[in-house]
Amino acid sequence: MSPSLRRLWLEHLLKTASVGLGGSLVWRTGSAQTDADASLSRSAPADPPGGTKVGTNILAIRIWPAADHTRLTIETTEQPHWKAHTLKDPERLVVDLRAANPDRKLEELITKTRLEDPWVKQLRIAQPRADTIRLVIELHEETRPQVFALAPTTPYQHRLVIDLIPRDPPDPLAQLLARTQDKEQELDALVRRLDPSPDRPSRPRPERPVTIAIDPGHGGEDPGAIGPGGTMEKDVTLMIARRLFELAEADPGMRAMMTRDGDWFVPLGARVAKARRVKADLLVSIHADAFSNSTAQGSSVFVLSETGASSTAARWLASKENSADRIGGINLASAPEREVRQLLLDLSTTAQINDSLRMGSSVLEELRSIGRLHKPSVERAGFAVLKAPDIPSILVETAFISNPGEEFRLTDDGYQQSLANAMYRGIRTWLQRHSARARAGGMI
Prior knowledge:
Blueprint: H1 3-16, H2 35-43, E1 58-65, E2 70-76, E3 81-87, E4 92-98, H3 104-112, E5 120-129, E6 132-139, E7 146-150, E8 158-164, H4 172-194, E9 210-216, H5 233-250, E10 254-258, H6 268-277, E11 282-289, E12 300-304, H7 312-322, H8 324-328, H9 335-345, H10 350-368, E13 379-381, E14 393-400, H11 404-410, H12 413-434, H13 436-440
Parallel strand pairs: 9-10, 9-11, 11-14, 12-13
Antiparallel strand pairs: 1-2, 2-8, 3-4, 4-6, 5-6, 7-8, 12-14
């Protein structure tokens, strides 16, 4: 053991001796004391056959803090064997990783904890046995932790995932309503500044603004496509999505919600669920295409197909985008994930697809005005993120990140803004033509 790791271990033992964390390791298989403990103990795999396998190495450790959870990922050369349980006063999650050789990456994990992490207060590491690493995660408040293993999938080897989910997570609908109220107050203040007279008539209140769900593709463990210059799709889509968000928020007849507003992973089903939670009127999922032929170029717009993809390329792309859950990592045993997977099995209505086609055509025309199109019309495929049965939804492939020229353009601030402007104009045109709510709200 390195001197620095030994120092961390001794510090850990001193801090936790009163709660019995020091000493020999007991692999828990009995009944759990809490709901969180129960899910943790059921998730733990069996001990390695024939005793401990000492050769497992830790390849990487990543931490992804988000507004509604924090994820830690430990990547290993072999299948991880682990046990986990929670402790009180203070709130802690203890994870024992078996058959893991000490590594400097464990020491680096402590420095990766961000001061602004809403859920993780601090991390401590110990080595209670030669074949075991103990990770103690001290939390700001009680959480519903999920610990599960993921099988290898490109570009990762084996992974142990630790999701720290608060007991009372932020409600996206409440956050949206709060922002809408702030927006109304700002508009009232502006009207008062323009006309301060006391007999000024009250500003007429429009109906509920149109709610736009903006979905930046990929994120966190899932980088999406990677361009020849190293540009990651997840970064490009987030930057474009933020620009579209600002345009929508600046429009008095619109309000926007982002399925993620930072670098973290959101399962496909959760993206749909978030859009439905805020009662979104439409959903725009933003991506950057990739293909083995680096000369492929141009923008595309896709909607859901109930019967099959409109082309072989569309079918291949949908399969690639739908693999995000496998790469990003979801806990298939958790009840919420079972519910959202069931939601994705629901067939979208014909009306939803028709509305999506009209919106997609409007957006595609605006994209045509700023650059080349890959296909001249809206394509169809079975994208999981488009399967909300009651929300018109489109997926925009902004450009081919696998094309060196288009990769360069995707990193340009001006081009990102042009893409966001085009999508905004296309959405607004569709709303003006086809949305009764938009007409009632005075957007025409």
